[in-house]
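Quick one: structure tokens for this chain, please?
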Amino acid sequence: MSSINCPWYKADIGTRLNPKIKRIYNKWSGITDEELVNHLHRFRDKAWPQGEYPCVGQWQFLLPSISTFPAYNDLVICARGGLTVLDLGCFFGQNLRLFAAEGMSTEQFFATDKTDVAWKLGYDLFRDDPEGKTSKNKMDAVFIKGDFLDRESELQLLNGRVDIIIACQFLHLFTAEQQIITARRIVELSVPGTIVIGYQRGETEAQEVETAWGTMYHHSPESFREMWGQVGKETGTKWKVEIDLVDVTEWGLKEEDTEWMPKDQRKGINFTLTRQK
């Protein structure tokens, strides 16, 4: 599919650069306002051929993400104390840079994805390659490549060690059955007090959805709560589930960004999970 004809390719950044996100590039990356838009356009042109995903075509890597969540400020304060943070399906690593710009040490950061292509591109996006001689700041997070559902991957080294787990647009990539397995895997990584925070596609009524990227399952708030209740019973853990059903435009998408989506599939869920035992 060519860039010109792709429904989720938006040629111009327009008004998609949120002030909170612009601050990351100014403060963490050292990119001035004058050069920022051109930098982002050059980067998006470089990243687009790597997969032609909506998150690239629609500039979704610029969404304010979890920074708009009620729990965010308290999470930042806690994380500055040296907590271990893991970003699931990290892509460019934009959520870890959000934390880094808040003054957290990146030495306790971990990131994982099936391939390292997007992660490596993230060094160009944020100009923070740990090997770069001119980087203003350096991203020292450990990247772990692999299938999250593979219990023999290097992620097992983090079992029982992770305090904050970021899961933005991640769980919905799996089927209903796979999401239960994924939730169990998250439990293995967690400790009492662990917070799992993120957002993903969701619906008023839970449903399986066929997409260009495979079969996904869009939870409703009720089915999401039920899944974590089930997983809690199976693993002997207890989770507090805070969840909101939102329109995807509340994430920062523009109305034109939703035109390719079926009208009954323009919802999402924002969630914060806290392991209580």
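The radius of gyration is 18 Å.
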